[in-house]
Write a structure and sequence with these properties.
Blueprint lengths: L10 H6 L10 E8 L5 E3 L7 E3 L4 H10 L4 E7 L16 H13 L4 E6 L13 E2 L2 E2 L1 H18 L3 E4 L6 H11 L8 E6 L6 H7 L19 H13 L3 E5 L5 H10 L4 E5 L1 H12 L5 H15 L3 E4 L2 H10 L4
Parallel strand pairs: 1-3, 1-4, 1-12, 4-5, 5-8, 9-10, 10-11, 11-12
Antiparallel strand pairs: 2-3, 6-7
Helix pairs in contact: 3-4, 4-5, 7-8, 9-10
Length: 325
């Protein structure tokens, strides 16, 4: 008789034959920066998460480093919005100021990735420039390049375009290369679906569209092959890392993209996934800690090399405790 239980008998043998392994090095923690001073504002839709002004961002950075998480993904909430998202690429704006603040205090100890998009900065809440009431793909591309370049000039280590405009990876790559930033990597939101799981994020970042939706540029969640197509496009344009977003309802997409490409692959466990686990745990419906661990492992098991998650610090603890990893 074949006895699979032989290699499940003790914790020591289970860990020895474990197929999926996770390290804190593969975790990225998202941070919301809000323009102003002395701000640590709780995000009601995301229990345990906050918006920080640049003068208080050290509090969350110190927490991350204390847990062994040294990579962050920055989002900005400006005080002023306009039709062309001026504060997205202003050199004195919220993300650029936050980058400089973090780099001044921590240098290379913290690896900074920045979200490149316009939805938080436009007064209409869409991810690009409008032509009448349509998002104009080609008109938006130079703006995205300006945003990315301003982030890198401020000290960002990597940029992550999330807008889903066609051709944006090539446009940003060209702009960075022409400015001399040939070594700055791009992590592309390659397969970003039009998802209801983003709801709490839109509350956190004040980025809900004022009309319509984003289905004309974000992906239809019925489609699988399209994710591979989009990922291959981004590889050809110069992406260094690919991303699938959301994560838990798209494990099949993670595996498809992993099989079809050879770049490192990230997955973003988004705000809705976090809040569902958090709120269900607080209500006593599930074991939050065990569900967090299991869901994170599922993302890596599906093929992800990197996980962007609001649970990054708790997962680092779980790895250190030997509960996963």
């Amino acid at each position: 008789m074949n006895r699979g239980r032989r290699t499940r008998k003790t914790d020591a043998v289970r860990k020895m034959v474990r197929e999926t392994r996770i390290s804190p090095d593969s975790l990225i923690y998202p941070i919301f920066l809000q323009e102003g001073d002395d701000i640590k504002a709780h995000i009601d839709a995301m229990p345990g998460q906050y918006r920080y002004s640049p003068d208080r961002v050290r509090e969350i950075i110190d927490d991350c480093l204390g847990k062994g998480v040294n990579k962050v993904l920055l989002f900005g909430i400006p005080a002023h919005k306009d039709p062309v998202g001026t504060q997205a690429y202003d050199h004195e704006a919220i993300v650029q100021s936050g980058i400089r603040k973090i780099k001044e205090e921590y240098g290379e100890e913290v690896y900074i990735i920045t979200d490149v998009c316009m939805c938080e900065y436009t007064d209409h809440g869409h991810c690009g420039i409008l032509n009448d009431r349509e998002v104009d793909n080609d008109l938006t591309l130079p703006y995205l390049a300006k945003i990315a370049l301003s982030h890198v000039e401020a000290g960002a280590d990597m940029v992550a375009p999330s807008d889903m405009m066609d051709g944006r990876i090539g446009t940003i790559r060209s702009a960075l290369d022409e400015a001399g930033y040939i070594s700055t990597p791009i992590m592309s939101y390659a397969a970003k679906y039009a998802s209801a799981f983003y709801g709490p994020f839109r509350d956190a970042a004040d980025s809900a569209p004022s009309f319509g939706d984003r289905r004309s540029y974000q992906m239809d969640y019925h489609n699988r092959r399209e994710a591979v197509k989009e990922s291959i496009f981004d590889v050809s344009e110069g992406a260094d890392i690919l991303m699938v977003k959301p994560a838990l309802s798209y494990l099949d997409i993670i595996r498809e993209v992993k099989n079809a490409t050879n770049l490192p692959l990230a997955a973003y466990s988004v705000s809705g996934e976090y809040s569902m686990i958090k709120c269900a745990g607080e209500a006593g419906l599930i074991d939050e800690y065990k569900t967090m661990c299991e869901s994170a492992v599922s993302v890596f098991r599906a093929g992800a090399d990197i996980l962007i998650t609001y649970y990054a610090m708790e997962l680092a603890d779980a790895i250190r405790n030997g509960d996963i990893g």
